[in-house]
C-alpha cells in the first residue's frame, strides 16, 4: 500500500477538534473565513457583466444544452485548449501548440498526474519550500527522494540559486517550483526563473511549475522588466506548468485546469464538457477584465492587511506578499513565536475566525512556528470584519496563547 502524509491543510481541525471541519466553511462555528486561498468567487453572470457582455446566462449555456454528453476529446475540449494556447502564446516567441495542452478537473489532479507519471523510486526531486504539501508529499509517497529548497522570511522568501546547485544529484529528475508561492505570496521574478532554467538545462532536469495563482501579480506591473513569465515561455523544452480557474480566476466551482502536458488516461477519461465549455467562455474575451478586477481587489485588500500588521508590530510581522491572494504572518510575544496551532484553535473557538496554522500545515518543528496563512482575496467588507475580530482577540485574549513548544 502506498503511504502518503496526512494532508494537513484540509484536515487539521478534524483531528484537533472534531466538530470543526478545516477549510470547509459551511460550519456554523465559522464567522470569518480568512483561511481561503482564492479570489472572491463569481458566477457566470458576474463574469459576463464584468466583461461588458449583454448575453444572458441562458444564451451562454445554450450551445452546450443540446450537446450529447459523451466522453469528449481525450485531451479536453479543443475550444478550451485553443483559448489556453492563446493565453500562453501571447508572452512567448514561439506559439504553444494545443497538442501540448491537456485539461483535468482541478490543478491538484494535474499535479498528481505529472508527479505520478514522471517520477518513481530511485529518482530525486528538488522542491521549493515552503509550498503546497502535495508538491513534496506525492513524490515521497511513490519512493522518490525529496530535497527541500528552503527559503526564510529573513531573506524575504527569496530562492538561493547557489543552494540549488548544491542540491543537485546525478539522479535529480525534476525541480518543482510554485509561482506565486503558497503560503507566502512570494514571487519568483524573471531573472531568477532564467537562472533556474539555465541550471536545469545544464543538468537536463525537468522544471515543473505550479502556476495556480498566476497571473495574479498585484505588486508588480506587466510592463516591469522583472515581471514573472510562465515557465513555458523560457525557451526550454523540458518544462511543465499547471494552473487552474479556481484561484486567480475566481471560479473554484469549475475546477478546470489550464495546462498539463502529460497523459491522464489512468486517472481520468474525460472532464465535464459543461465545465470545459464554461471555462472556454471565461478564458475568452472576459479574461482580461476578470484578472484586472482581481488584481485591483487583492491590492486593495493587501493594503488593509498591511495596515493591520503595522498597527500590531509587537505581535505580528510578515514579508509583504507580491502575488496571489495569500500571506504568511508570524505571531510572536516578547520576540518568541506563539503556538500557531493553539492560536488558530482559540481564534476559531472564541471569535469564529478560520486561519491556517503554519507549523501544522506547512512544516513540522521550528521552521514555521508562530506562522499562520491568511487569505485576503475575498470580499473587502468581510476581510475588514475578520480583522476586527482578530484585533479584538489580540486586545483581550492573546496573552493567554502559549509560546510555541518548538521555539
Automatic annotation (TrEMBL):
<dbReference type="InterPro" id="IPR015424">
    <property type="entry name" value="PyrdxlP-dep_Trfase"/>
</dbReference>
<feature type="domain" description="Aminotransferase class I/classII large">
    <location>
        <begin position="69"/>
        <end position="389"/>
    </location>
</feature>
<dbReference type="InterPro" id="IPR015421">
    <property type="entry name" value="PyrdxlP-dep_Trfase_major"/>
</dbReference>
<keyword id="KW-0032">Aminotransferase</keyword>
<dbReference type="Pfam" id="PF00155">
    <property type="entry name" value="Aminotran_1_2"/>
</dbReference>
<dbReference type="InterPro" id="IPR004839">
    <property type="entry name" value="Aminotransferase_I/II_large"/>
</dbReference>
<dbReference type="InterPro" id="IPR015422">
    <property type="entry name" value="PyrdxlP-dep_Trfase_small"/>
</dbReference>
<dbReference type="GO" id="GO:0030170">
    <property type="term" value="F:pyridoxal phosphate binding"/>
</dbReference>
<dbReference type="GO" id="GO:0008483">
    <property type="term" value="F:transaminase activity"/>
</dbReference>
<protein>
    <submittedName>
        <fullName>Aspartate/tyrosine/aromatic aminotransferase</fullName>
    </submittedName>
</protein>
<keyword id="KW-0808">Transferase</keyword>
Amino acid at each position: 500500500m502506498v503511504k502518503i502524509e496526512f494532508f494537513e491543510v484540509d484536515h487539521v481541525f478534524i483531528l484537533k477538534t472534531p466538530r470543526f471541519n478545516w477549510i470547509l466553511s459551511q460550519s456554523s462555528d465559522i464567522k470569518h473565513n480568512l483561511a481561503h486561498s482564492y479570489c472572491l468567487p463569481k458566477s457566470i453572470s458576474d463574469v459576463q457583466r464584468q466583461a461588458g457582455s449583454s448575453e444572458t446566462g441562458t444564451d451562454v449555456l445554450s450551445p452546450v444544452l443540446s450537446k450529447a454528453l459523451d466522453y469528449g476529446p481525450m485531451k479536453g475540449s479543443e475550444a478550451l485548449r485553443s483559448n489556453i494556447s492563446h493565453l500562453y502564446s501571447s508572452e512567448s516567441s514561439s506559439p504553444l501548440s494545443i497538442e501540448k495542452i491537456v485539461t483535468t478537473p482541478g490543478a491538484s489532479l494535474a499535479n498528481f498526474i505529472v508527479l505520478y507519471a514522471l517520477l518513481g523510486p530511485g529518482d530525486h526531486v528538488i522542491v521549493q519550500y515552503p509550498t503546497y504539501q502535495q508538491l513534496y508529499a506525492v513524490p515521497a509517497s511513490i519512493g522518490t527522494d525529496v530535497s527541500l529548497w528552503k527559503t526564510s522570511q529573513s531573506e524575504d522568501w527569496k530562492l538561493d540559486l547557489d543552494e540549488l546547485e548544491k542540491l543537485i544529484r546525478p539522479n535529480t529528475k525534476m525541480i518543482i517550483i510554485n509561482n506565486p508561492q503558497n503560503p507566502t505570496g512570494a514571487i519568483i521574478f524573471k531573472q531568477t526563473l532564467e537562472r533556474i532554467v539555465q541550471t536545469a538545462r545544464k543538468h537536463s532536469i525537468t522544471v515543473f511549475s505550479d502556476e495556480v495563482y498566476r497571473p495574479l501579480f498585484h505588486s508588480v506591473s506587466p510592463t516591469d522588466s522583472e515581471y514573472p513569465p510562465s515557465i513555458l515561455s523560457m525557451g526550454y523544452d523540458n518544462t511543465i506548468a499547471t494552473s487552474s480557474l479556481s484561484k486567480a480566476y475566481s471560479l473554484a466551482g469549475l475546477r478546470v485546469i489550464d495546462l498539463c502536458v502529460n497523459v491522464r488516461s489512468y486517472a481520468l477519461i474525460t472532464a465535464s464538457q459543461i465545465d470545459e465549455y464554461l471555462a472556454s467562455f471565461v478564458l475568452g474575451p472576459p479574461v482580461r477584465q476578470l484578472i484586472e478586477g482581481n488584481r485591483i481587489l487583492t491590492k486593495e485588500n493587501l493594503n488593509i492587511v498591511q495596515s493591520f500588521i503595522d498597527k500590531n508590530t509587537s505581535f505580528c510581522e510578515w514579508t509583504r506578499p507580491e502575488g496571489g491572494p495569500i500571506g504568511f504572518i508570524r505571531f510572536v510575544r516578547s520576540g518568541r513565536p506563539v503556538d500557531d496551532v493553539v492560536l488558530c484553535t482559540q481564534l476559531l473557538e472564541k471569535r469564529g475566525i478560520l486561519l491556517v496554522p503554519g507549523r501544522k500545515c506547512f512544516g513540522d518543528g521550528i521552521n514555521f512556528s508562530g506562522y499562520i496563512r491568511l487569505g485576503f482575496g475575498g470580499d473587502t467588507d468581510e476581510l475588514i470584519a475578520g480583522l476586527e475580530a482578530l484585533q479584538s482577540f489580540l486586545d483581550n485574549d492573546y496573552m493567554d496563547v502559549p509560546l510555541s513548544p518548538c521555539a
